[in-house]
Amino acid sequence: MPQVLYALIPIGISCAAFAFSVFTWRERKVKDQRDLFLRVHERLVDVDLQRGRRIIYQDVNSVQDVQHLMRERPGDYDTANRALAVLDIAALYVERGYLDEQLFMQEWGLAYANIRETRPVFH
User: Fold this and answer.
1) Number of domains comprising the chain
2) 77-102 residues labelled b (16+ CB within 10 A) or e (exposed)
3) Is the pLDDT of residue 107 over 80?
4) Does 96 fall in a domain?
5) In the predicted model, what is the mean pLDDT of residues 31-40?
6) What does pTM read for this prediction?
7) How far apart are the C-alpha atoms of 51 and 80, rounded to whole Å?
């Protein structure tokens, strides 16, 4: 019987190590998602990106508005396009599961709703 017990000890240690590695992997994933959320959030609250979203909300309601913006106010066009690109990347992160969808939409869902209402088309 002691030989069987000695044989089970390495198996028990291996199982405990595996369980610990799964636990640490899960904890690391949660921490990484939280850190990524904070980085994306900090980026989205950047003054330049806020200005870009404001340009979209106020000045873009059609393809013609975008074309006018591109011709007459190229700096504003670039700012709005950049804001839209960052929102697009954030949505991709949510879609791929890099960010928690509920948390992200709770914080940024209104920004997406406003963008959807204006339906801008950028090139």
Assistant:
1) 1
2) bebbbbbbebbeebbebbeeebbeee
3) yes
4) yes
5) 93
6) 0.72
7) 7
